[in-house]
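Board notes (copied after class):
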Amino acid sequence: MKFLLYILLLTSILFASELPRPKKEFTLTYWDMKKLIYAEIPKGKVVVEFYVNERGEVEDPIIINTFNVNLNDIILNKVKQSTYYPAIQNGKPVKIKYSLPIQFK
């Protein structure tokens, strides 16, 4: 039994899971939103969920929570432009669901 636990511990160390990391980070600037903002800079939170596939590409982004629907298209386009190093599980790249909270201050 101890041998089996030792093997399980050793394999979990060797084949540790790794979350996706950004290659091309998500960036959203005032200039991206300039045409939609008339009076003041918006304040609130938007949550976007998407999948990062085995090649690190963003798939199926959707807005889960938003405070200003006028910003949704810009945010979705910017999320689609971002790329990631894929998540790793057991030494192989895997598809993973990712949630990105965006805070406007």
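Comment from the instructor: Strands lie at 21-24, 44-52, 58-65, 83-85, 87-89, 92-94, 96-104. The chain has three helices and seven strands.
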